[in-house]
Each structure stands twice: as structure tokens, then as C-alpha cells.
Input
Amino acid sequence: MKLRTTFRSASELYHADTCEPLKAASARGDLRLAALGRGSYPGTRLPKNDLKEILMAGYWNATFDQDWGLDWHCNEGLEIGHLAAGSLPFRVDKKLYQLKPGDLTITRPWQRHRVGNPHVPANHYSWLILDVGMRRPNQPWHWPDWLLFPQTSLQRLTDLLRQNEQPVWHGNREIGRCFERIDETVALGDSIANQTRLKILINELIVLLAELLESRNPRLDETLAGSERTVLLFLENLHRRLDEPWTLDSMAEACGLGRTHFAHFCRKLVNVPPMEHLTRRRLEAAARLLQDQPEASVTEIAFRCGFQSSQYFARVFRERHGHSPSEHRKNR
Output
């Protein structure tokens, strides 16, 4: 049994996608799936001692509309996708894109996205997932040492990928042809010759991708790859982890920062100290649960929202709302 890869980010616990709906559709014969993968990703196993940065390379070819889709998920590496034929709904964060032939998708490591709305129509879609060693937005990327791209050019490409929020680009004929050859190589399996061919093709793809992005002159925002961005993501997703026993030190550690820097960015973003913001978010969540879940006891809600005792919860709730949790529930 393969263990599913997990990653505790500054914002929440992520699970790497295992493509279960896609694997099931392939097993039913609904489409053709060809892939090389490692870890929890499907496909013929990649070699242990070579191509370690390639987490998966593959494609599917669906000749009729499907009854499945890939719900919200993340990948532990940089994913570059290409739609060769058909159409494909693709959602990143709050925006839905309708991909058309020739479109590229680019998602950063651990960036949530969804394929299908909710189902996948007939299409031919290819993808490559590369591990660049990034676990937080403010960490450096480490590209495979078998890439022949100069380091200065790789750094520029890294900036282009990290510092813009556009996940969908229209490609060109050269990139489309490169993905066709990658598909052909994947379909042939994992022989030594194919492994070498795959390295060469990925080098070509990276060069073509860099040229494409430079030609489009994307708008860059350095804060997307900085420490402030890490803290922002942590605060935006704090509601998912209110039950954890947070301290100032543990929140700072979750963001990979010292407590002073974390507190500085937190005050800048929400205008209150970190622990005060945490208490406010816990009280907001508790107030909603008191009204939405009348079957749950006040003590149960207190613990679910991260309060260590019902007495302390009652006291700070009254200070915030001017009445007790029980009275809040009665006055819903």
C-alpha cells in the first residue's frame, strides 16, 4: 500500500493528489491513461536513482464526456499541463477557466486547484510534475541538476513562475509539439533510452516555457514569494486549524519565521497582535457554531474552537459579545 504524501504548510495540512478518480476511469476503460510516476502518483514506476525530481509525467485521452473530475487537490511539485484537444474546466482559487486547445496550466507546489466542473469533458490533456523543493512561498526553488539552463536564466524563470498569479497561458506550436513528444516517450515506458529522451524533452520544455513567459511580459509581484505572503496564507486559512494549541512561537514556526518578524507581518496585515487575532477568529467560529449546531454543547464547541476550558471561553465570549454563549444561542 502506497502512503499518501502529506505536507503541513503555514496554512493547513495538505495531501498530495493520488488521482483516484482518474485511475478508476482508466480501469473502467473510459479513457486511455499513460503515465510515469513515483510515490503516491499513478503510472509505471520511475527509477529510484535517476530522475528523482520528476514526480509524474503523463496524459489522458478521453474520447467522450466523463462522469468524474479531480476535486480540489494539491501537488507537491510544480505542475505544467497542456490541453491538446477538446475542452477542460480548470479552477484555481476562486477563478474558473475554460481551457481550449493549446492552453497551458501552471500551478505552483501545493497550490490548490480543481480539474472538471465537476466532470471532465472529452479531451486530451498532458502534464508534468517537477519537485523543486519548495515547501513555503518564501523558500528558494531547487531545480534538477540535469537541467542545462544557465542558473541566471533558471532564477529568472523561477521569479516569473513564483511572482505572478496567472495559472493559465495560451501556448504555441513548439510547446504543443514538445508535449506530443513527451506523451510518446511516456507511452513507451521507462527504459534507459526513454529516461534519457525524457530529460532532453523536459530541458526543451523549460526553455520554451521561459521564452513564452518572457514574451508575454507578465505582471510580477514580489510579495507573492515573500515572508509576508506566507503569513497572509497562514492567517487566511487559520480557521481550518483553530483547534490546535497555538502559541506565538508555534505560529511563527509554522511560517518559518522568528516570532518578532511573524508578529510584525501579522500586525501589518490584520492590525492586531497574533494572539489577539487568534482569539477573535476562535470567538467568531464559536458564535457561528452556537447558532448552526444547537445539538452541540457549549463545552464541546469551546474545545472545537481551540479554547482550553469552558470557563475561559465563557469569560472571553461575554467580554466580546456582552452576553454568555448560552444566551447567544437562545437569542439566535
